[in-house]
Amino acid sequence: MINKQPKFANTRVGIIGGGIGGATIALKLSQQGADILLFEKESSLVNGPPMCHLHAGGNLYREISDQQCIDLLKQSINTAKLYQEAIDYRPTIVAVPSHDKGEPSDVISRLTVLQREYQRLVESDPQNEILGPASEYFRLYQRADIEKLSQLSVPNHPQTPDEWMIAFAKQTDLTRLKFPIFLVQEYGISVFRLAALTSLALENSPHCELLTSTQVTSVTQNSAQKWMIETTRSGIDETFEVDYLINACGFRTGTIDDMVGAKPKRMVEFKAAYISRWNDTQTKWPEVIFHGTRGTKDGMTQLTPYPNGYFQIHAMTPDITLFEDGLVSSKQESAQPELPSKYIRKVNHQWDEQIINERTAKAIEKVAGYIPDFNSADVGGRPMYGAQQIPGADATLRVADVAFQSNSYARCEIVKASSALPAANTIFDKLVELGLLTDENSQHCRNSFVDTSMTSDISEQQIAQRAEYLALERGFPADLAGRTMPSIT
């Protein structure tokens, strides 16, 4: 066995898990003076649960509190500032179906709270205006407005709120909806561009050693209170010594907790989204959310657009995105919730072709209930899937970041990608408090809460090429690495 000392001389931080949480923490800490070892068992970074929505306001989740929505808004703004090159600049339509128990007035109340908070954030720092003017955070449309827009031609490159509504107005069965409906400046976020951006940045960093295709097999502390991380890669066993350990293993976080003797409560949920292709359209669509009651046949439906007629579909029903026995909790003997083996096989990329076809067909049918012509869509690729951690015992929790188990061990507990940057900043503050990073670094961090220098030197061509490569490597159409660019005003 090779006992490998990191090649750096500063405070050494080991991060286990290269999802969006681990990768963002690695970016932040390496930029602020720490020397990072990032361990990821997959061959590339940010390779986890389906991710497509920035969540700038949490408008998908009407069951969560206004405070969680405000927190998601703040986190999403900072995420968009850091990862601007991964943002898909198209708005989101939010509609309440006619059969649903909710009312548009409830949506108005929440959007008004969020608009007011966004205005306050912009006034405190003009750079927060990443979602466009606060006065345009949302716009409501009555049925007469939609019918009028349906008479217009669909633009090739929609710019204004009305132009983004035209395709929806032409194709949607308005008798299925309550009015008004809403256009919100909630943008998309590309998992493949995020993976490309973080990978390129960390590969360029002189303070990060990126260890992909590396399985952590054991974590212990030695007599000097250093963490010893045992790994295997390509049949070679290695041991690494670090001063501080960060567990960013996503749904497998409990496996590392078990190694270090921590037993926090958590849940894990397996979910999937489905890729379809609607050959009848090359039109640019906004994202579309049809509200619904999670876990019922009328669960929320989310239609996420990509270039060239590809769409990703979430439908929070038991036969589409959700799975029977797919939500599990940890038990007293282990911090790691145990998913049924059939879902572990899916996480490990073992899907039955018949299940893919059946669930994608049901997802298409669900969308076609609101947009009838969508029934001509077909399977566009393999599902986007994964398991999501939820710390504690509240299955509706959407905002979480970090828990500290000791003075040398932190657990990243993000649920949504927008929480990754706050998690990184929280851990940075702890390292300063412990004297592992300097006050000079701390002052720099506080003066620049979102330090875009971590990603600003990477060209669009580099990002696009790497993102397309990662999409194809993971078995998805290259078009899923595309995005709508921001409007030039």
Structural key phrases:
alpha/beta; ten-stranded mixed sheet; six-stranded mixed sheet; 22% strand; disordered N terminus
What topology does this entry show?
Blueprint lengths: L1 E3 L7 E5 L3 H12 L3 E5 L26 H17 L4 E2 L3 E4 L8 H21 L13 E4 L1 H7 L11 H11 L9 E4 L3 E2 L1 H14 L3 E4 L3 E7 L5 E7 L2 E7 L1 E4 L5 H8 L5 E12 L9 E4 L10 E5 L4 E6 L11 E3 L11 H7 L5 H16 L9 E2 L4 E8 L10 E5 L2 E4 L7 H14 L5 H9 L12 H14 L16
Would you give an account of this structure?
By secondary structure, the chain is of the alpha/beta class. It is built from twelve helices and 22 strands. Strands 5, 6, 7, 14, 15, 16, 17, 18, 19 and 20 form a ten-stranded mixed sheet that branches. Strands 9-3-2-13-22-21 form a six-stranded mixed sheet, sandwiched between helices. Helix 1 runs parallel beside helix 6, helix 6 crosses helix 12 and helix 10 runs antiparallel to helix 11. The longest helix is centred in the first third of the chain and has 21 residues. The N terminus is likely disordered.
Structural class: alpha/beta
Mean pLDDT: 90
Low-confidence stretches: 1-8, 441-449
State the distance separating the first and last CA atoms: 59 Å
Note the beta-strand portion.
15-25%
Helix percentage range? 25-40%
**Number of strand segments:** 22
* Rg computed from alpha carbons, rounded to a whole number of angstroms: 22 Å
Major sheet details: 10 strands, mixed
Shape category: globular
Q: Please tally the helical runs, counting DSSP H or I stretches of 4 or more residues.
A: 12
